[in-house]
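Async update (no meeting this week)

Hi team, since we skipped the sync, here's where things stand on the single-chain job. The sequence we agreed to prioritize is pasted below, unchanged from the tracker. I ran it this morning and attached the output directly underneath so nobody has to dig for it. Comments welcome in thread, and please keep replies under the output.
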Amino acid sequence: MEAEQSLADEPPRNHGKLILDATVAEQAIRYPTDLGLLNEARELSERIIDELHAKSNRPQKKKPRTYREIARKAYLSLVKLRRPSNRKRRAGIRQELQFLQRNLNHIEAMLTEYPLGTPIPLPNWLLHRYWVLPHLYRQQYEMYT
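Output:
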């Protein structure tokens, strides 16, 4: 009986944040820059390569080179600049395009190991993102040229 009264006497706990003004909205939306999109696509392609290599029929075969450390360092060196010049930005985009193209070629070569009609051993969410990568590459390459 006393335990029920002590629970009733406690004030209710907070369960989140209440925004009353309709004109106020949180802004957790990032602006997609060309360089950021290419970097994200490159990281996804590296993850796909890792998954395909892990589930490969021939695991003793060496995993393809992705130059992920070099690519990450090049991306961060450009992003950290306050106002990169057009020449540096364009060189960074070209570099990311080259990294992404190399990874896409590796993925295509790895997928040729699977006979026609066999399912690709990737989770659905990663497979859907893989289908977007060539389109993103083509769009960014057209904008670059």
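Quick observations from my side:
Residues 86-111 form the longest helix (26 residues).
The mean pLDDT is 87.
Reply here if anything looks off.
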